[in-house]
Amino acid sequence: MTATLRPVIPAASPSPADLPLEEATDADLLAAHVGGDDRAFTVMMERHADRFWSLALRVMSKPEDAADALQEAMISAFRRADDFRGDAAVTTWLHRIVINACFDRLRRIAARPSKPLPDDVERAAKLTAPDDPEAGAVRSTIADEVTAALGQIGADQRAALVLIDLEGYSMEEAARILGCAPGTVKSRCSRGRARLAVLLSHLKEAD
After folding, report:
1. What mean pLDDT is reported for the chain?
2. I need a surface site. Which of 76, 89, 195, 201 has the fewest CB within 10 A?
3. How far apart are CA 142 and CA 72, in angstroms?
4. Which residues have C-beta within 8 Å of that of residue 136, sequence separation ≥ 6?
5. Are both 176 and 101 inside the same structural domain?
6. Structural domain for 54, as ranges
7. Are 184 and 175 in contact (CB under 8 A)?
């Protein structure tokens, strides 16, 4: 008698809804937020908090302005979550919102006198957490110098440099975030790097 062969049915994988929020993808968290989960958005923001803080700080230069811009960006993302269509990664969508919030705030404070040097040394030290205090102090000083120099170039160039050189985005990805052509991003980076080379020339001379 010939045995009847039966197909092997694989065990079902857990659906996104079955996973703990901390293990869910950003897209699943955003969908859960839109669906009414009151913790999903907070979990997603906490996951990327330091990265978005660093982005806002480098674009705005002053910690208090960066904090205000980031707060506005998070409110905007919270309210506009159902506008996300999945044509890019959630982080790309969020970066675009943060950048736009920074630009909006820069426009509003354009007439207000500002100091170019940031005073966020304590947070920078906390994020780097070096084992060697002396080496950490040097890195912190250089980071402050770079952040200060970024604060002295145009906002468009600064945003392009932050996304390409510090965040690691490609020209195409940065262009989508900034809402311009890749060639425009490349041009802004080129001009920004030339300006930074002048502003940071003393660091090279000190080597």
Report:
1. 78
2. 201
3. 29
4. 125, 128, 129, 130
5. no
6. 22-110
7. yes
